[in-house]
Amino acid sequence: MKRLSSLEKSRKAGLKVNAGFLCTVLFPLFLMLGACVSEDTAGKGDLVLAVGGGKALQDGFPYNEGGVELAFVDGWTLEFTKYVVVIGDVVLRDPASSRIAGDLPEPVGLDMKAGGGDDSDLGTIPGLPAKRLDIEFSFLKASAKAENLNVDDDDWDRMVSGGLSYLIEGVATKDGTSIHFSLGLSVADHYYDCINGKDGTKGIAIESNKTTGAYIYAHAVHLFWDSLTSGDETLRFDAFAAVANEDGLVTEEDLLLQDLTDLRDADGQPLRDANGNRVYYNDGGLLPPDSLNLKAFVERAARDGVHFNGVGLCRVESLE
Amino acid sequence: MKNNTKPVSGRTGWAGFLAGVFIAGTVLIGVPPSCGNTGGEPVTYRVFVGGMISGAENTDSFTNLRGWSITLDEAYTVVGPIYFYSNESVPLADGGHRGGFIKSANACPAHAQFDKGEVLGEVREQYVVDLLAGEFFDMGVRTGVAGMVRLFEVHLHPPGKVNVSGGHTGVEVLGGETVFVKGRAVKDEETVEFIGNFSIPDEEVLRIVEQIPAEAPLVSVDGGEARVYLKIKLDVWFANVDFSSLTVEDESGCFIIDEESQAYLALLSGMRSRYSYVLEGEGGAQ
Questions:
Q1: At what angle do helices A6-21 and B2-29 cross, to 10 degrees?
Q2: Can you tell me the distance from the alpha carbon of A221 to that of A217, in angstroms, rounded to the nearest whole number?
Q3: 3-state class (DSSP) for residue A131
Q4: What is the pTM of this model?
Q5: B20 contacts in A (CB within 8 Å)?
Q6: Is the pLDDT at B165 greater than 80, yes or no?
Q7: What residues form DSSP beta bridges with B181?
Q8: With 0-12 CB in 10 A as exposed, 13-18 as middle and 19+ as buried, what is B223?
Q9: pLDDT digits over B148-162, tens only?
Q10: Are A229 and B210 in contact (CB < 8 Å)?
Q11: Of residues B91, B109, B275, nearest to A229 (C-beta)
């Protein structure tokens, strides 16, 4: 057996030390470095942002989604003809530093129904760092500084002069009676810290050297639920139809006439469901005591119906 | 010699590798050894509850939004459980959705997809409270976690849903229901004597007033116990009650707040309103 010289022993020992050193120190450092580097030097990517209202906007009521039919319990069918929203202040931020990575600051007004209800493009934010970013945006009142993308001029004038953030129109039908609705809602809210509805994570991951798609979801079905909380919601239209004018049109002003503590039918009698019970809209205790009317309820429903990338929720603060 | 060194060298390599992966993983994930620590100190606290009128010293008379001047002779309710949370309403990431697409889609304003944070304190029992007593009812001493209560929820079940604590006389008055109110309301020339004795319908979460915002410190005062005060605003309970909607009288000529009346739905709405409940803490800076 060949004996190792002291030099060889030292050399072997040195190699062992080096191997241990590599495994215990350099490898973890490599991992850490790799992780850090990959976030910041992974390149750039673009974000294409769209806005949509979901199947309800596309198909009207009733509609089928995931094998579930969503229909009005009081027998109405409904089609949307317009769904105008004003969106602006889209900002993507680095979650660590809060620095702005990209934005679409200018507000735009668009009719989500104009293209049949499919998602409408809001714009592209190019050159974003390829990493996870927080996203925020606002639903704003129409103003002269907002760009009108595809809204009918008369409607846009109405929205600007009335300070409206939504203009929602359509027709509901029951037993041969048609009720047209034209609801101008005036809410302005900032949505931030959004959860991504696709995977339940916070924000959105921008892919390197690719265009990442995302969408803001103004979930139209919310407008006609009779509850602002979860679990006991039912779709109803009777309370809207009851306050239509003699031409069969109901506006946001008419909704003020429906007292949530005393909903009435078109004859002024207590509004009842198919079982003869009084219809009760559950506001979840959210509406102020001086705002217990159907208009305030629908405005709150619209506010709460805005999500990110599906049903991802955001934190919301009023801009009023 | 070769055989003596190799195994040692091999162990060092694998152990080093595993240790390296562990260290790297720990550093990368950012999990310190004390990751289970909630960060809050234990606190002993006392909870009080009582009725009040917004901006008034008295607790029994006020004018509501419908123009009725209301004087209450009796007002009892049963309160509890109560939970004090550390978070504002924050959207819940990853796993917050309940069930399928449709159900989760409208679970927005309420509980399902929001993270209430840590439970800093709780009252697990029910207490019958005389809302006109003019002083706060003491629900007793408990232990919890020191911090700022930013959200709380109040349960308004009929007595017996959970253990009813305290030696209360009001429990008989309640007659097994959540609320008992009696008084008179005056508007123009009309006076309505009224009585109401009912429970909130047991549907979904109607009996729970959820996510009431707060900014109440649950912290020790001079090393002693913390104190939190739950104030129930009777004027908000009755804010939209129209007493002209009452049509059913009892034998004494007193109008009953019956389930068909606007007064019932308005009082129900008031009891469920987040504006009806205020939480205040008695404590200094932490």
A1: 20
A2: 11
A3: coil
A4: 0.83
A5: 23-25, 27-28
A6: no
A7: B75, B196
A8: exposed
A9: 999 999 999 999 876
A10: yes
A11: B109
